[in-house]
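ingest -> validate -> predict -> emit
validate: passed (alphabet ok, no gaps, 423 aa)
predict: started
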Amino acid sequence: MIEGDRFDVAVVGAGPAGMMAAGVAAELGAKVILIEKNKELGKKLVLTGNARCNITNAEFNLRKLVENYGQGGKFLFRAFSVFGPEEVVKFFNGLGVKTKIENNNRVFPTSEKATDVLNGLKKYLLKNKVNILLGSQVSKVILKDNKIEKMVVGNKEIIAEKYIFCTGGKSYPITGSTGDGFKWASDLGHSISELSPALTPIKIKENWARDLQGLVLKDVKISILQDNEKHFKETGDILFTYFGLSGPLILDISKTIGELLKQGEVKLCLDLFPNLNIEVLDKKIKEKIDENPKKLIKSFLTYFMPKRFIPVFIKNSGLEGDKKINDVAKKERKIIARLLKNIEVTATGLLGFDSAMVTRGGVLLKEIDDKTMRSKIIDNLFFSGEIIDIDGRTGGFNLQACWSTGYLAGKSAICKFSANGLK
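emit:
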């Protein structure tokens, strides 16, 4: 039940950033309304981490943490110093959500259920008496004297002292992330950088990838080539799909590939043995041949790759799969070694916002005060979450940015209500 239409803080968007901002502001004494156009809270949150919810990344060195957000990472330093990964873990533990740390410092609820994270946040909002308005679309934002005077929501006018936009980006539009906040921010005078899908799978030209759908290759090094120029190398896990490639490594480099594709064809070179140079790998192949001289090539290759990958490898190598490995000439053996170190595929594009985990682009960082998340253009407006022009790698970094900016925006918006003020 909404207690009237006047509030200290109105938060638009009930994703992770919005729920955090609303809960914090209310906990510190403000009368808060949280407005969500979906009929439920956290619709996108429960899909994260394959419904397991990668809450954060246990990188407690803040200088190293910001490196996972590219050039804009320094903007988050203040937010992380106030409410970083350590505080996030303690926060959710305090809500009864126990956590565990997995590979690459990824933090998950021990239950492996994203719904437990959402339920913890719901209890937090309820405890702090946040007014929640579901199934309600903001249709108009009214400005007066460089401040938001009110918002029209359905047949209501919502009036608040401060407003926080946490409307997300454009990724996963089926969850309600349709980019509404970008238009409102633009109409209010903010600049919006180019919006594009980030952390998204890659389409490739080679049809053989379809035959490998579902296959995971671990610890593969990928080099990105364009016009014979090598841009960078990264190592991680990749997943073959019916359209091309996905997996953590692919998602992390998709942003760079998308930019390079604007300039022309992009080649990806897969190195299945990044820790061995080609001479050492060739020696290992020869040793295995000496140990298994009667094996057929197609059976022998199981020592070096998953069984499902062998037909594709043989086709690309030009070798005869039914030939005994002992009959392989030195020249053919070196072909195996070279191909294990360099399997080329051609990127043709990225999947769109429907498949992207986050949005690249948003409200320009220079127009937001990094110490408070307050707009430098509209006096009583704050931003948090994916609407801001910043995005991170996979592994809990994007949710961490939501928690941190949401916390800082919520606290900053009501600092006059708090005896302690900001940290």
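The chain has a mean pLDDT of 92.
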